[in-house]
Amino acid sequence: MTAMTREETEALIQEVLEVYPEQARKDRAKHLAVNDQSLEKSNKCITSNRKSLPGVMTIRGCAYAGSKGVVWGPIKDMIHISHGPVGCGQYSRAGRRNYYVGTTGVNAFGTMNFTSDFQEKDIVFGGDKKLAKIITEIEQLFPLNKGISVQSECPIGLIGDDIEAVSKKANKEIGKPVVPVRCEGFRGVSQSLGHHIANDAIRDWVLENRDGDESFPTTPYDVAVIGDYNIGGDAWASRTLLEEMGLRVVAQWSGDGTIAEMEKTPKVKLNLIHCYRSMNYIARHMEEKYNIPWIEYNFFGPTKIAESLRKIAALFDETIQAGAERVIERYKSEYDAVIAKYRPRLEGKRVMLYVGGLRPRHVIGAYEDLGMEVVGTGYEFGHNDDYDRTIKEMGNATLIYDDVTGYEFEEFVKKVKPDLIGSGIKEKYIFQKMGVPFRQMHSWDYSGPYHGYDGFAIFARDMDMTINNPCWKQIKAPWKTAAVANEQVAAKAA
Amino acid sequence: MPNVMLKKNAEGKLVFYVPKKDLEEVAVSVEFDSPQQWGGEVVLGDGSKYYFDPQTPPKFPVTLRAKRLDSGEE
């Protein structure tokens, strides 16, 4: 299928909206748009970060997911207590594949699940005593932990437990940071508010810990990587590039990160933001309080990597700028070979994306490097400022959908007929059963890393093995293909 | 009376950020912008207007309370 015109795309949106009752149709119409690159501001064409409609199926998470799953969870040397009933912690355990170095259960705790396992009596009489007991127990069993965070699940806010008081007391007792996080799942419309709450908790309970302590030796080239969660090793693939160009990465937020790194972040010279949606809050705070500038960068695909490396280097002196050029030059033969190998196999393929808060715009460059075209994109929990940044990245007259419902996404796919869909695990099997190649773009389908030059090679290989997999030719049931063949035979015989 | 985070961008223009509204916009004009006095009416790129009490120039980036005069819509 060729690219759709503006009118066709608009007609498609209208057609999809038709089945809704009037009220729902009016509401959903605001979340679907045809991209217009001439627009400066997204609020002219799309509404985002609003409550999902009751009765439709959307793909969002909750504030607890945003805080425990995204921001706090990857900090490896802290123990994160899922405070409340057992399910939230267990079902979010280790699914995100934020890799880390360390011995699990001794000095790193990333894939473990700590929960206060609320029972009826804890709801009735309150769970503060239990929380205090758990913290003491953790300290006995895991003495090498560097701190504890209390991630609230819904009931904590509902019954009004005072986790702040318990945390302050525990902090005095064990002499390590104990951070209460008010990320009850019912707060906000999606996981996005959880990110904000988690950022605020870091601001209030962690960031100031080493203010006035100048014992950490600094260099003019200190940077912090913020908003890289080391999914499948992403942060490592990014870090090597930055270090190779001569920068010193002091902290990784928060993939493979430690609390000590976070406490040292106010000493850096520049904050590098990869996931803008989940960590811009803390970057803005550090800019105001510690005068640390921040910039967004994008390490997906060689074009964007080179662009980002040069942008970062421009803020430093000539040695770093020369370093950036050296890095780009060094990997040139590698990524040229990747493109030479995969581009002919992927050229012209069309992709639809629907991911969380960053990748719907960040991976576009990587697909374009492989000659592919992104024909539709959307965020689960993006805000206006994310869509502002998306409009320019996307082609004209492409589809943009915010907080898309299961029904809408399926209908769009049926009409647009992309060659690949990049979305999450909840969508994966629906589309695979429809016969559309699919990559899980939240945690890279058990692959990765996708960041950096090393990641790009893996990204290209994964896209190729998915799209050009021979299984897609076998998707039709044999008796159905046989029926067509039989008819043809019969027709010939007649 | 929104809290506004103000900073200067690379071109030295004033950037406006209202966290609650995800509003990120460059200011087109600032009524008083001299070493003696800063503030007054600020007009943003999208046409909305905000007011800051005139004061000695703050050190950017800074968070200040603004009064909204005109949302720039309609």
Keyword list:
heterodimer; A: alpha/beta; six-stranded mixed beta sheet; four-stranded parallel beta sheet; 21 helices; 14 strands; B: mainly beta; seven-stranded antiparallel beta sheet; about 0% helix; globular
Describe the structure.
The complex is a heterodimer of chains A (494) and B (74). The two termini of chain A are 35 Å apart. In chain A, strands 1-12-11-10-13-14 form a six-stranded mixed β-sheet, sandwiched between helices. The longest helix of chain A is centred in the C-terminal third of the chain and has 29 residues. Chain A is built from 21 helices and 14 strands. In chain A, α6 packs parallel to α8. Chain A is of the alpha/beta class and 494 residues long. Chain B has a single domain, classed as Beta Barrel (OB fold (Dihydrolipoamide Acetyltransferase, E2P)). In chain B, 0% of the residues lie in helices and 59% in strands. Chain B has a seven-stranded antiparallel β-sheet, with no helix packed on it. The two termini of chain B are 21 Å apart. The mean pLDDT of chain B is 85.
The percent of residues in helical segments of chain B reads under 10%
User: How do the strands line up in the largest sheet of chain A?
Assistant: 1-12-11-10-13-14
User: What's the domain count of chain B?
Assistant: 1
- Residues in β-strands, percent of chain A: 5-15%
How many runs of DSSP E, i.e. beta strands of chain B?
Answer: 7
How many individual β-strands of chain A? 14
Q: CATH superfamily of chain B, called what?
A: NifT/FixU-like
Shape of chain B: globular
Name the shape of chain A in a single word. globular
Indicate the proportion of strand residues of chain B: over 45%
Count of helical stretches of chain A:
21
Give the class of chain B from helix and strand content and strand pairing.
mainly beta
Q: How far is the first residue's CA from the last residue's CA of chain B?
A: 21 Å
Low-confidence sequence ranges of chain A? none
Structural class of chain A: alpha/beta
Q: What is the count of DSSP helices of chain B, taking H or I runs of 4+ residues?
A: 0
